[in-house]
Design brief:
Distance between the termini of chain A: 37 Å
Number of helices of chain A: 21
Radius of gyration of chain B: 20 Å
Distance between the termini of chain B: 32 Å
Largest sheet of chain A: 9 strands, mixed
Strand order of the largest sheet of chain B: 2-3-4-7-5-6
Shape of chain A: globular
Order of helices and strands of chain B: EHHHHEEHEHEEEEHH
Radius of gyration of chain A: 24 Å
Oligomer: heterodimer
Number of strands of chain B: 8
Structural class of chain B: alpha+beta
Helix content of chain B: 25-40%
Number of strands of chain A: 11
Number of helices of chain B: 8
């Protein structure tokens, strides 16, 4: 098991937030993207590494059916997005994993694909889950059109005019991905095969690159359709409008268990973000450039909050809170005394006392924004060698295991699991679709097949078992007698050295909101415009405002 | 079950693998499939994780880990957990039930748990193990012990010796363990320089093995209901 430096952050320790504060679901459900988000990490790397992107293949017919290849070159490697474009009838368009066809399907190829590779991919990639890819591929994805906006943009461009910016702003993307798979899914290369490449060592870089290149495809295909339709009259999308388009993403419960199943990874994400905040707060003063950077970031955040819409009953009040908080922050900054000692820490404390959790987490993102030189290196520690943490320490004594439970799971041991409200839900996998779902224990069958996402209850059950054991007994002896505790003992040993590994809330309680898990994960991806469509299904936007491949390296802020 | 051939509506592609051919699985797919299958066959979640680890490790070292696990799960059907687990006595680990072979996953995990303990495998006396079913599945755990404790492990049986963690041939000889049942083993440890076992291209896995493991895995899933279908997607249309 990896043993981090016992005092890795001594200089910033006093400024760090505790796991008890940040690992609560309601706060995780207020997460905002930051400059440590994975798409930002990718864009910075491509900018700094002088990456070049071209499009060696564009073979589309008049119906927009065909294939294209986007080739990204940098740091001695080539990655190619192979895109297949389809003509999908409206009645077949669904964002769920149950869909069987899509407007476009994609794979990220490791290198420069040959004609034979393209043909192999052409018979597999459009099938998505029903096809197979190989270790030459790093990701598999699909996307559907935003029907209304896609049609509007094609019509406008074909007609020789730019699309209506209100229509663009109301949706924010031409297509939305409904799944982006990596890490060995469907025969693709394993994470372990690529994790030692510097450009892919941060989390989800292959997936982010896939989505960023898909964004370029969505614009190219809309311009292609407009040119077919409008002929000489057709125009291309204006760069300033194009910039406001991201790639949408629809995601549901399937993504939620990820942050529970990968405790070391979750720890490293949160730890990096919290260390970044602590470094900013620990500064004794503020430079003029940083203050100006904060103001610019706040203006962008205010514009983003104004454009961010949702009709969901949970999100509506959160957006109201956020807009109010950003206004309060702008007012405060107008009179903020930056000459005081530790002004960033003072600003943070003002935020804690004044703002809602939405505003506090937004303030965190804003405070990181002008401090790239201070915090960007933290992106290097957001990956995780999970295999290195797999081995249990059987020589550990029961006394030490109980101490870990008290230290790391005290919040769980306080929950009364005999109360129906605290066991109201259960996580399971559906036989029909093999996707994760959340059931109601009192009214649905299947609780016997519960997935081990009820971490708090498992910790509580382990604690109950351990009360009968000699404190000097070994964990090996306990597990020989109680193999059912092996799963939670492994987690507890991981949690000892990874304080942010566990979400400190009951994931089977009646008031648990799955979208809080989704928002946290998606914020780390860099998602904006978080828009719940139910308590377990959301739409988001990726790469909105970011440079396109033909703009990379031209100094456009990302 | 309501699936039809070619049904693509699943978050996993291994259910599509059937028939008489074979398939290249990623290590991630092997680990995920074998974890679910082991759980479906009755292992605890934590032990099922070990089964996934073991099968994936074997695949990465050129052995048919999924095939071994599939055979073991088939054969272990209906046997009580207590009968498969080791009873730890000084110098000899056997199944609690007389003449019953040990589960290599439970034995392997228990060996790892005891690696640094006096009752464990790294003392200066040999440890009799078994009989053990599908001892190939033990190798990933023995490799873990060798790496963690800095010992070279020798596994003796009436057909020869396999050395784990030492220089030279080592694992190449382990192929003789393929699909063996109820093998009596003697494990001994000597301090030494431990080498990483060489990674080998993964073998293709028989489609029939994948299908059989998926049948076990399906036992961890919940049949559909109106409530579960209703709750899964967006409240509105996706056609906007």
């Amino acid at each position: 098991m990896s043993r981090p430096d016992p005092a890795p952050h001594s200089r910033t320790a006093a400024y760090r937030r505790s796991p008890a504060k940040v690992m609560r679901l309601p706060r995780m459900g207020c997460s905002h993207p930051t400059r440590l988000s994975f798409l930002r990490v990718l864009l910075r790397r491509m900018e700094e590494g002088g990456w070049q992107v071209d499009r060696p293949a564009w073979e589309m017919d008049a119906a927009g059916v065909g294939h294209a290849v986007y080739r990204a070159r940098g740091e001695g490697r080539i990655y190619s997005l192979v895109a297949f474009s389809h003509d999908l009838p409206d009645e077949m368009r669904s964002d769920r994993v149950i869909a069987t066809a899509w407007d476009a399907t994609f794979t990220l190829f490791d290198g420069d694909p040959s004609a034979a590779d393209i043909e192999r991919l052409r018979v597999n990639v459009p099938l998505q889950e029903a096809g197979r890819i190989s270790t030459r591929e790093l990701a598999l994805a699909r996307a559907n059109r935003s029907v209304r906006l896609f049609r509007h943009v094609v019509e406008a461009l074909a007609d020789g005019r730019q699309p209506d910016t209100d229509e663009i702003a109301a949706v924010g993307y031409l297509m939305r991905t409904t799944a982006v798979y990596g890490s060995g899914k469907f025969g693709a290369a394993d994470r372990g095969d690529i994790a030692d490449r510097p450009e892919l060592s941060a989390p989800f870089q292959a997936e982010m690159l896939t989505v960023w290149l898909i964004r370029a495809f969505t614009v190219d295909i809309v311009e292609h359709m407009a040119a077919i339709r409008g002929g000489d009259r057709a125009v291309r999308l204006a760069p300033e409008i194009r910039r406001t388009l991201g790639v949408g993403n629809s995601t549901g419960l399937g993504m939620a268990p990820f942050v529970v199943r990968h405790p070391v990874l979750l720890n490293n994400w949160i730890d990096a973000r919290e260390e970044a905040l602590a470094r900013v707060r620990a500064q004794s003063g503020a430079t003029d450039a940083a203050v100006a950077g904060l103001r610019a970031a706040l203006e962008a955040a205010i514009r983003n909050a104004a454009a961010w819409t949702s009709e969901h009953e949970v999100q509506v009040p959160k957006l109201r809170d956020l807009r109010g908080d950003l206004t309060r922050l702008a007012d405060e900054l107008a009179r903020w005394d930056w000459s005081r000692d530790h002004p960033w820490d003072a600003l943070w404390h003002w935020g804690i006392e004044t703002l809602t959790p939405e505003g506090q987490e937004a303030l965190l993102a804003l405070m990181l924004e002008p401090h790239g030189a201070l915090v960007d290196d933290l992106a290097d520690r957001m990956g995780a060698d999970e295999a290195a943490c797999f081995q249990l320490d059987g020589a550990m004594r029961v006394r030490e295991l109980r101490r870990i439970l008290d230290d790391r799971y005290g919040w769980a041991l306080e929950i009364d699991f005999t109360a129906p409200r605290n066991v109201a839900r259960f996580w399971y996998v559906s036989e029909e679709k093999l996707e994760p779902r959340l059931g109601e224990r009192a009214s649905e069958t299947g609780a016997m097949l519960e997935q081990p996402l009820c971490i708090a209850r498992l910790a509580s059950e382990l604690d109950c078992t351990l009360t009968d054991w000699d404190p000097d007994a070994t964990v090996a002896s306990v597990l020989l007698a109680h193999p059912e505790h092996r799963y939670i003992v492994r987690r507890a040993q991981v949690a000892r050295d990874h304080p942010y590994a566990e979400i400190q809330d009951n994931l089977i309680g009646e008031d648990m909101l799955p979208i809080d898990l989704l928002r946290c994960k998606l914020a780390f991806f860099g998602a904006s415009q978080f828009d719940p469509r139910s308590d377990r299904w959301v739409r988001i936007n990726l790469f909105q405002g970011a440079p396109y491949p033909d703009e990379i390296g031209k100094g456009i802020a990302s | 079950m309501s699936s039809v051939p070619g049904d693509q509506t699943r978050g996993d592609s291994t259910p599509f693998i059937a028939g008489g051919g074979s398939v290249a699985l990623s290590r991630n797919e092997v680990a995920a499939l074998c974890l679910k299958a082991a759980r479906g066959a009755g292992m605890s979640w934590g032990l099922a994780e070990e089964a996934g680890f073991a099968a994936s490790w074997l695949t990465a070292h050129g052995f048919d880990g999924p095939g071994e696990l599939r055979a073991h799960l088939d054969e272990a059907q209906g046997r009580a957990w207590e009968d498969l687990c080791p009873d730890i006595a000084p110098g000899a680990w056997r199944a609690a039930a007389p003449d019953r072979p040990l589960c290599p996953i439970a034995l392997g995990a228990t060996l790892c748990d005891h690696a640094a303990l006096p009752a464990g495998p790294c003392q200066d006396r040999p440890l009799a193990l078994g009989p053990v079913d599908h001892p190939l599945l033990l190798l990933p755990f023995l490799d873990t012990v060798a790496q963690a404790q800095g010992v070279v492990l020798s596994l003796d049986w009436d057909g020869g010796r396999i050395v784990i963690g030492g220089p030279g041939v080592g694992l190449r000889d382990a192929g003789v363990f393929t699909q063996r049942r109820a093998v009596e083993l003697t494990l001994s440890a000597t301090p030494g320089t431990v080498r990483d076992a060489a990674l080998t291209p993964a073998p293709r896995i028989a489609a029939e093995t994948v299908a059989a493991l998926n049948a076990f895995a399906l036992r961890t899933t919940v049949p559909p209901s109106a409530a579960s279908r209703a709750g899964a997607g967006s409240a509105g249309s996706d056609n906007d």
